[in-house]
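Field log, afternoon session.

UNIT: design team B
ACTIVITY: writing a sequence onto a fixed backbone
BACKBONE:
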């Protein structure tokens, strides 16, 4: 025992494990104040008529590991983390900000989400952020230079609500054109796969979509030249796309020599017949 065990008596001290009057004839029992609300004045611990409370600095407070309830009449155990049992929201947010007590369990409040055992505000792509956890409401997003953006290898969708994976190869699966355009340039997402736009073809050496070069346009290699809607009948001659030797140019396209000769012969015959009829 110690002197503190004799606090309930006036002028009492602890001598040989017994409370005795300290030079006074009488040791009267102190009048105690029964404090029933946290934060109210107290002199000794016995004044605080609240379970798990102590008298500290002249005020009734909860002991370590406990927190005052909303009505400041009960000392409740501080929750260990999300999912812990609770009666009052103060048990949750004392240790974890942005939390509530929902269905007797600690959970993140509205417009917040859980990340690594903590609740963070929901911050969308393109909005200002202060912590990496705020951006995790969007998968594959991060906080960089104070703004939520997509991680490397991902791009925002058209609505800026998702981070979509950038296609690495032509014909890779996709949802939106931006997944294809980012790496291949003039490309589109067609029927769920990346492909070059019309009049463009994929150049493996450069890894991008390059526009087809048509008849009479400048070129460097035969592979630069392509005919419209057919197997290429062009080749690069002196820096320009021209019809290959087995084709002849007609009305801006390359026609088979045999077909051209037949067509020309039929035209000559037709004109000859018309000439005969005119002079008969």
């Amino acid at each position: 025992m110690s002197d503190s065990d004799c606090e309930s008596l006036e002028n009492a001290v602890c001598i040989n494990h017994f409370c005795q009057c300290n030079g006074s004839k009488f040791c009267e029992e102190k009048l105690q104040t029964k404090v029933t609300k946290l934060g109210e004045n107290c002199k000794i611990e016995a004044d605080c008529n609240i379970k798990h409370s102590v008298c500290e600095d002249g005020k009734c407070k909860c002991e370590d590991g406990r927190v005052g309830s909303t009505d400041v009449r009960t000392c409740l155990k501080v929750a260990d983390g999300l999912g812990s049992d609770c009666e009052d929201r103060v048990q949750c947010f004392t240790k974890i900000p942005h939390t509530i007590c929902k269905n007797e369990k600690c959970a993140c409040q509205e417009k917040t989400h859980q990340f690594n055992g903590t609740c963070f505000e929901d911050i969308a792509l393109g909005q200002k952020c202060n912590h990496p956890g705020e951006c995790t409401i969007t998968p594959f997003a991060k906080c960089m230079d104070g703004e939520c953006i997509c991680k490397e290898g991902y791009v925002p969708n058209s609505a800026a609500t998702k981070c979509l994976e950038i296609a690495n190869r032509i014909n890779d699966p996709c949802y939106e054109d931006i997944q294809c355009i980012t790496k291949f340039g003039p490309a589109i997402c067609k029927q769920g796969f990346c492909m070059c736009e019309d009049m463009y073809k994929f150049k493996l050496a450069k890894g991008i979509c390059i526009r087809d070069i048509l008849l009479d346009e400048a070129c460097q290699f035969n592979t630069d030249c392509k005919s419209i809607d057919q197997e290429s009948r062009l080749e690069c001659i002196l820096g320009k796309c021209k019809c290959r030797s087995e084709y002849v140019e007609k009305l801006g396209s390359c026609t088979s020599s045999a077909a051209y000769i037949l067509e020309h012969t039929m035209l000559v015959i037709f004109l000859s017949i018309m000439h005969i009829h005119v002079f008969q």
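LOG NOTE: The mean pLDDT is 85.
NEXT ACTIVITY: expression trials, pending approval
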